[in-house]
Amino acid sequence: MELEKIITWILIFALIMPTIVLVSTGTAYAFGGLDLDDNILNILKAFFALFFLGKMVGDKSPTSEPITDQTDNSAIQNGNGEQSSNSTSQEEIEPDNQTPSTESEDVTKDDGVEIIENEDWTEMKVYSLSRDEELMLDLLNKERIKEGLNPLKIDFRLVQVARAKSQNMIDEGYFSHFSPNPNYGSPFDMMKKLGIDYYLAGENIAGAPNVQWAHNSLMESPSHKDNILHPDYTHIGIGIVNGGPYGKMFSQEFADLVN
């Protein structure tokens, strides 16, 4: 009977732990489960999937709790380092008109992208989306269409930023909108390094075992959902890279691009 009580309390604790973490950490948060070596807890960890989410806010709502850009402390970063009061819809930037970057990528059996290490992420080659990235784009745009919003168009420069960000988080073992590596910095810094001009820009980051899990988790978080359904965004880059503690690392780079 005593063992049954212990197991019952362990189950209760494992169930409420994600809620405690969510409430206590705000916009960028983590579900970490339990880190004990007991066999029973290891089994529990397998049943309670682990994921974490982060959002660089691209939302004007006063009810959100943004992680702000370091440059100007505004919730929305624009090309002038100022908060934008309005935005202009942009035409699609065709991939054929873009100068391809020059680092290579591999697609593994489960279709997660693996970046071949290079000294300069700005030289990465990006020609297309992986199947995982296409799936996430499809799920995301279905959510926008349901809300009467225009679907987001792919910009391969933003994909380059997203993949580099996901890979950098894996390589350097951090989870944040701001890289400790000065060659990366914030997502806004990365966009500027590629010469991406925008009215508005934002970022969601996540770690999860698969695309559906990551998408559902982002949509269940009001602040991350705000980025996905932001009416002013016109383009997106998605970078999904194999690795990290939860199997795959996800970055979504949103922007309302200047011509």
Automatic annotation (TrEMBL):
<protein>
    <submittedName>
        <fullName>Uncharacterized protein, YkwD family</fullName>
    </submittedName>
</protein>
<feature type="compositionally biased region" description="Polar residues">
    <location>
        <begin position="62"/>
        <end position="102"/>
    </location>
</feature>
<keyword id="KW-1133">Transmembrane helix</keyword>
<feature type="region of interest" description="Disordered">
    <location>
        <begin position="62"/>
        <end position="114"/>
    </location>
</feature>
<keyword id="KW-0472">Membrane</keyword>
<dbReference type="InterPro" id="IPR035940">
    <property type="entry name" value="CAP_sf"/>
</dbReference>
<dbReference type="InterPro" id="IPR014044">
    <property type="entry name" value="CAP_dom"/>
</dbReference>
<dbReference type="Pfam" id="PF00188">
    <property type="entry name" value="CAP"/>
</dbReference>
<keyword id="KW-0812">Transmembrane</keyword>
<feature type="domain" description="SCP">
    <location>
        <begin position="137"/>
        <end position="254"/>
    </location>
</feature>
<feature type="transmembrane region" description="Helical">
    <location>
        <begin position="6"/>
        <end position="32"/>
    </location>
</feature>
